Amino acid sequence: MEQTTTQQQVITSQELFKHWMGHRQLTRRVIEAFPEKDFFEFSIGGMRTPAALISELLAIAGPGVKQIVTGGTEKLQEDLSFATKAKALELWDKADADITRYWPEISNERFHERIVTFGQYEGSIWSSIFYFIDNEIHHRAQMYVYLRALGVEPPAFWNRDFGDK
Fold first, then answer.
1. In a 3-state reduction of DSSP, which class is residue 98?
2. Model pTM?
3. What integer is the mean pLDDT of 41-68?
């Protein structure tokens, strides 16, 4: 008697997308919580300012997903320029729109495909996406410390509900 097994998928592409977008919405609320001046100037122990951290995240997420879909290899451009927190939030929303636009073009079959993002970071599509998410969480945690040092209550870290967007 021949026995067959079916492998269950742990998480769907759409569930991973919603998880990431939940993180991005939380990071957006963290940006909003900063006083304007401190967003650009506050630092502890020589770490980068919140604006510099966000500049890096903006350089990775949207362009990274676009590269995954298009096969591009443009170098990482971390030094994005924005003069106001409102402009940073506008760029954040544009990156969300780019991720939302390109995400459906990543088929399930491609997640294990080997790629090189930004012309230098080799990995699989899934490991690259996990890096994008993990890096955002890391920098958001730094900004939580900044907010607490400034006496500002940060958004609840567990509130990552993306809803049905």
1. helix
2. 0.90
3. 96
